[in-house]
Amino acid sequence: MAKLTLQLAQAGPIPLQAEFACQSGELLALVGPSGSGKTTLLRAIAGLYQPAKGVIRCGETCWFDAQRKHSLRPQQRRVGIVFQDYALFPHLSARDNIAIPLRHLPKPAQAHRAEEWLARVKLEGLGGRFPHQLSGGQRQRVALARALAREPEVLLLDEPFSAVDQVTRRRLQRELVLLRQQIAIPIVLVTHDLTEAAALADTMCVLHNGTTLQSGPPEALFRRPASPGVARLLDRHNLFRATLRCQQGRYCLEWGPFLLEVSAEVTAQLQGYRTGEKLEWYLPPSDIVLHRRDRPSNGERENPVAAMVSEVVTLGGMTSVALRVAHGDMLRFEISTHAARRNQLAPGAMVKVSLLASGIHVMAPVANEVSTSPGVYET
């Protein structure tokens, strides 16, 4: 049961200041905008790139140590790689592509083992077909089977589902989840799709300019980003600035005309700040609660706020709502389309929402913040 650990650094030509760990049986998703170093890190793990500084270990074995000038060759690292473009040999059948890492076995054993892997990725009977005779999803399965036929200690997936349609993509994602139950090795996934990362990963690592900004379970990152920059890279809305105040011995946030109560956890966090200091704060969309018109609520810690509906976008069973508050900031959240219709939400309507204190997450303003538009990712 090998654990993959990585700590790499260099000033250039590709800046790096990255570190993460991936346990055996865990899937780690590397996310970040184009040029953030995700693929470079995969290449470093595979032995195809050597950074200036750092260490890579798999279990008790050191794969790379820049200080000691030690680097195992790619063949010695037992890494399986699935590329975005599959990288299958067009002149070889699916069976022969899978058999490439099995050439140390006798010919009959190669074919038998390749057929076993074809069955495991649900391609029974298609071993004789060439890549051009297979669909995109089938080619991706062949590439995955070839990577796993090596019996790797680490599996690297470089945007493996980006070249297939959405239906095939969801099917392949489901099959990867099932396959993980059979292979207890570290899996590192590079993806631009935050929805995919959240659905598949045990841990997410947010990268920008080659630097690890935050690592942790997806839910923790989406609810508690370490900085405004991480929030923006994760395409989080509801990121605002407020002034710290103290009312009757309790901390609160002055946000325009509103004084927002915060949780005990945030209160403890605010002990190191001064009253009057400007802070960044974030609220997950799930912690914005729309008051029903016929059941107004002024719960003790609900922070009721009046706002005007600015935008209503219905997408099937869910409706995206944007509310503009008195001082101009915009709140965004989603509710069921049924609830939106029941509450007669339409641009220009006045509504009241609760900003749950338990969801308010406070961050100190950070100098030289990441400036990233929400459109960096595919969602």
Plain-language structure description:
The protein is an alpha+beta fold. The chain is 23% helix and 31% strand. It contains 10 helices and 21 strands. It has helices at 38-46, 94-99, 107-120, 136-149, 166-180, 194-200, 218-223, 228-233, 264-269, 337-342, and strands at 4-10, 16-22, 27-31, 53-58, 61-65, 70-71, 79-82, 154-158, 187-190, 203-208, 211-216, 239-247, 250-255, 258-261, 278-282, 288-290, 304-315, 318-324, 330-336, 350-355, 361-363. The strands form 4 sheets. A 6-stranded mixed sheet has the order 7-8-9-3-10-11, sandwiched between helices. Strand 5 (61-65) and strand 6 form a beta hairpin. Helix 3 (107-120) packs across helix 4 (136-149). The two termini are 34 Å apart.
Beta-strand portion reads 25-35%
Strand numbers in spatial order across the main sheet: 7-8-9-3-10-11
Count of DSSP E strands? 21
The major pleated sheet works out as: 6 strands, mixed
Sum up the overall morphology in one term.
Answer: globular
Q: Helix share of residues? A: 10-25%
Number of helices, where a helix is a run of at least 4 consecutive DSSP H or I residues: 10
Structural class designation: alpha+beta
Poorly predicted regions are 368-379
Distance between the termini: 34 Å
Q: From the alpha-carbon coordinates, what is the Rg to the nearest angstrom?
A: 25 Å
Mean pLDDT: 88
